[in-house]
Each structure stands twice: as C-alpha cells, then as structure tokens.
Amino acid sequence: MDHRLPERDRPWMMRTYSGHSTAKQSNELYRSNLGKGQTGLSIAFDLPTQTGYDPDHELARGEVGKVGVPVAHKGDMHALLDGIPLDSMNTSMTINATAAWMLALYIVVAEENGLDPGALEGTTQNDIIKEFLARGTYAFPPGPSMRLIADMVAYTVEHVPRWNPINICSYHLQEAGATPVQEIAYAMSNAIAVLDAVRERVDEELMGRVFGRISFFVNAGVRFVEEHAKLRAMGVLWEELGRERYGVSDPKHLRFRYGVQVNSLGLTESQPENNAQRIVLEALAVTLGRDARARAIQLPAWNEALGLPRPWDQQWSLRIQQVLAYETDLLEYPDLFEGSKVMDGLVAELLEGARAEMAIVDEHGGAVNAVDYMKAGLVDSHSDRIRRIEAGELVIVGVNRYTETEPSPLLAGADGGILTVDPAAEAQQREAVARWRAERDQAAVDAALATLRDVAKSEGNIMDATLAAARAGATTGEWTDALRGAFGEFRAPTGVGEAAAGPGDSVGLEELREEVDRVSEAIGRRLKILVGKPGLDGHSNGAEQIAVRARDIGMDVVYEGIRLTPSQIAASALQEGVHVVGLSILSGSHRELIPTVVQTLRDRGVDVPVVVGGIIPEADVEPLRAAGVAAVYTPKDFDLTQIMRDIVALVAERHGAASSA
C-alpha cells in the first residue's frame, strides 16, 4: 500500500530575518537572498525604529543599524524595497510599537510605485503585550497600544485585505523562559485581548474575516516532539476560541496559521558549531506533522549567540530549509502523527495545563491586566531553567557537559565569525535624516502631525492620519512623539520583585550569602548593586536574572528596567549609593555605550566597579577593560552563582574587605 499523498505537499514560505546598517545595504542583502531561493521577506528593524526614535535622538546612540535596518521616513522605505515586486512579495515586518507607522510607509511606497494597496501581502507583528512581557520595544501605555492594534486590524480588513495586521508572538515568551504551557496560555490570552479590542471597532459581521487574518509567530525548541505537540494544542485552542467566543464558522477562518523562528535561547556561544544541528532538529518540530505544519519559517544562523550573522551564515540556514523541503520525503506523506497515542497524550496534557493557566489570566481581568502576573511567571520559569543548567539537570552539550573541544575553524577568520556594522553608518544616518527634514515641505508635515495628534485624542481610527503623515514626509520619531504627547509614556514591570525566592543551597548559595553578610558588615552597610540596561536593548532576561540572583544572596538591588541613558544610570548610582554597577547589552551597542556610561559615572564621582554582560565578541573585551570595565561576561558564562561570587569579591577588594580564607 502506498501511504504517500496524491501530490507532494507544497513547501512553506522560506525567509531569513535580516537587515542592518542602512536601507540601501539591506536592500542589496534582500535581493541577494531572494536570488538564492528565499521566497518571502522578513525585515529586521533596528532598535530606534522599533521604539520610535530617529537616528539623531540621544537614546539612539550606538544602536543605529545594529540589530536591523533603520527606517526613518518614506525615503528610507523606498530605498529598502527598491526593485522588489511588492505586488507579488509576501513581507513580514518584525515591528510592534511603531507597526502602524511602518505599515503606513509600506503602503505609501506601494502607492508611489503605482500599486494598489489591496494587492499587498504580508504581516506586521504588532504584538504589544508580548513587548511588555518579554522584548521591551514598547512605546505607549497598554490601553493606547491596544487601540493602535485594533485600529490597524480594522483598517487592513477593509483596505488591505490580504495583510495579516497582527501576528500573536509567543516566540519571545519562550526566549524569556516560558514553559510550553505558559507559551500556549499567554499567547492565547493575548489573542483574546486583541480580538476583544477589535470587536469594539468593527461590525460584528466582520469578525470572521478579522479572526481569519490573525496569525501567530511561535518558537520551537530542541525538544522537538514536545514542541510539535504544543503546536497541535495551539491549533485546538484556536479553533475553540473562534467557534465558542467569536462565533466563527468558516473552516478557512478557523485555521491556526503560524510562522516560526526556531529557538535562539538554546543557541550557545560555547562550541557554536553545535547550533547547526540544534537548528535542524528544531525545524523538524514545525514541519514533521502535516496537520500542524508552519506556513512560513525563518531559521536563525549558527552564530547568532556571537553577534550579527554574515550573508554566508544566513545562506546556510536557508539551505537547511531547502534540503528539508526538496531533498527529504517529508512533504510526500499525510500527517505522520495521526493516531499516535504518544502525541495525543502530550497534546491533551498541554491543553489541560494551558486551559488552567488561561483561567488564571482571566481571573486577573485578561492579558492586559495580567501583565504583572505573567511577567513574574516568566522570570520564575527562566530562573528555574538557569538553576537546572547550573545543577547539570538540564544538559547543554558543550556548555555544562562535554566541554572538551577542538578550536572551531568557523571562528578562525579575521572577522571572528560574525558581521560587524561599520560605526560610520550611524553618523551617515544622522546626517541623512537631518537632510531629509531640511528638504521636505515642513508646512505639510506640521499640518499632518497636528491632525494626527487630534485624531489620537479622539476615538477615530489612527490609520488615515498616519498615512497622511507618511505621505507628507514625517519621520518615525515625529510620528511617535505626536502619539506620546497624546497617550503618555510607560515603563513595563520587571517581574524581579515578584519573582519567587531562589534555589536555596542547591548551587552553593548559602556560602555566598554568608560572604555577602561579611562584606556588608565590613563596609558598614548592605552591599548594593545597580543593574542597568543602557540604550534601547529590550532583551532584559539576563539583567532580570542577575537582579533576582543578587537579591537571593542578600544584596540590595536597584533595577529600574530597560531603556536608560548613561546619565540616568549614573544619577541613579550616585543617588542610591551603590557599590557596583552591572550593565547588560545584547544589541551590539556596547562599544559606544559602555565607555560612555563608565565616563559618566566618573564625571559624577561614582567610583565603583563596573561589570558588563551580553553578546560581546572576544575582540571587544580588551577595549572594554581599557575603558575601565572590571569584568566582562558573555553567554558562555552560564553559572550565575559564580558571576555573583566574582562581583562580591570585586566589591570586597575595592573596600579592602577581601577574605583572607
């Protein structure tokens, strides 16, 4: 009997998540990747663009073009998309706080190229609750943020009907430590909050179409059997929600549609070549079962724990997808797990846990009101993951087992195995945005921004005014500033204060607590650490875990969350009288920002050790030390207790209280 499908299943859309330096350079990269067989675009924006700042803003310093492409106005979007057929391209934009603005720029560029916006296909991530929980690129408070999402959904369903206006993103929840149950429950609770908000802004008969345009962006870790079960469980819950809560009956609208980037949390700096097989195995989670197969996949590169991937590294990840789709027989069969007792049991177990967790979120008043609860849950889960790695319960090959290794030839080149953004690109972007402002019709921009502010203060849909501002030539920072003036600003919860107590003595904490007590007594007051995140990097997981572990060993902790200027960090260190400053950066801006923070501390008279953690290439370690940094930690330094032991010793040495033991 032939168990194959009558026709081979069609492959998923293949993407690489990319963008850096400038719109022109990113356009060259996109066209090259498309020439290699990539079938959809996935645009990575830099942090100033994601958080609503122009390249010449104080907070943009060191961040321009680092983790994505800077797009400050429609001219940049034209350059980014030059020569790319937007009427036949499916474009994913990983953008949240400024999603309405980036979609407006995309629409305007299409219009100015003679295209009908109704033909545009793609996705804006546009998931702000996830930003409050895990990624940190929010700009506005929860209420106005949800209104922006609802406005976008309502607008696109009518005017850009082939566009996915939001992709509920559980990816970063897993990166922040979510268990499969938490990832399912928090993502579904998030989707409920979005759909309820949209329901208030569209006619009820449109809810089926709205439901059908909601997609998801998920994570898939190396435990690929469990991860596949997670995706099947999400599909079951999604259909239940559609039928029971929103009255959706069309099977096409009820389908659980998701794209995926497989896990980056599990990628290691140690023996980074092991990441290649991790990525392949993770790709199986989202491709093995036909009934739960991803519609679009982007794979990280093997070296993303080290820095920015080069074009060759991205090509390798694209080739992994192509080999899987075209060389294997994966697409020739019906669902491989149909009737599997193991898979059915796993799905049932995850559904039970997710429904229970969703009920707790609902008791808190829904996802928006439960942000504090969910954030604390993620911090707890991530703390437990780190504890298990430290204790050897969770094995990571090359990190806490099988650490003997040959030198990796992949790192042997002059570039150290990563792409480094030219520092001159930031100055060029600052000059370019100043030139753009000088050459546009300022009266038209002022009028458009005035209308935008008025609409923001009303109950009207923000999209028409946003499109008018884009056409007039307003900038990303100007659009965001107009809305900040109407909506106010916001700082998301850190989850540190609510996190559960640490792992007791299982990783040697009691001895360290005693040492903290001894040093505190010697210096005359409780040892205090400031944990700071300069710049726009919103990946706060590492900083949160350092803050929690410092608290658990008895230190006083000052942690004010993300997005701080060097001046703010120095002022807080002076006011709080801290004994040590710990800085966390993962965006590649350490070369510019860390020396500035150190110098600002000195200028304020704060003479304390400064330690740094993040994705920092080996070549940058000595320059940071020369700038006054006492210690540098990278992802290979997984033992938090040892890091804290080093920090306590630094403070003791600075105060002449070093142990004689």
Brief rundown of the structure:
The protein has 661 residues and is of the alpha/beta class. It is 49% helix and 9% strand. The chain has helices at 23-35, 47-51, 74-80, 99-112, 128-135, 142-159, 171-175, 180-199, 207-213, 224-246, 251-254, 274-285, 311-326, 341-363, 371-391, 424-439, 442-457, 463-472, 476-487, 509-523, 541-552, 566-576, 590-603, 621-626, 640-654, and strands at residues 13-15, 17-18, 41-44, 90-94, 121-124, 163-164, 166-169, 214-218, 258-261, 296-298, 528-532, 556-559, 580-585, 610-614, 631-633.
Key phrases:
alpha/beta, 9% strand, 25 helices, 661 residues
What does this structure look like?
With 661 residues, this protein is an alpha/beta fold. It is built from 25 helices and 15 strands. The chain has helices at residues 23-35, 47-51, 74-80, 99-112, 128-135, 142-159, 171-175, 180-199, 207-213, 224-246, 251-254, 274-285, 311-326, 341-363, 371-391, 424-439, 442-457, 463-472, 476-487, 509-523, 541-552, 566-576, 590-603, 621-626, 640-654; strands at residues 13-15, 17-18, 41-44, 90-94, 121-124, 163-164, 166-169, 214-218, 258-261, 296-298, 528-532, 556-559, 580-585, 610-614, 631-633. A 5-stranded parallel β-sheet has the order 1-10-9-8-7. Strands 2-3-4-5-6 form a 5-stranded parallel β-sheet, with helices on one face. The radius of gyration is 25 Å and the shape is globular. The N and C termini lie far apart (74 Å).
Q: Terminal Cα separation, in Å?
A: 74 Å
Instruction: Note the beta-strand portion.
Output: 5-15%
**In one word, what is the shape?**
globular
**Which residues sit in consecutive blocks of at least 5 with pLDDT less than 50?**
none
Structural class: alpha/beta
Q: Helical region count?
A: 25
Mean pLDDT: 93
Please give the radius of gyration in angstroms.
25 Å
Q: What is the makeup of the main sheet?
A: 5 strands, parallel
User: What is the share of helical residues?
Assistant: 40-55%
Which strand order does the major sheet show? Answer: 1-10-9-8-7
What is the strand tally? 15
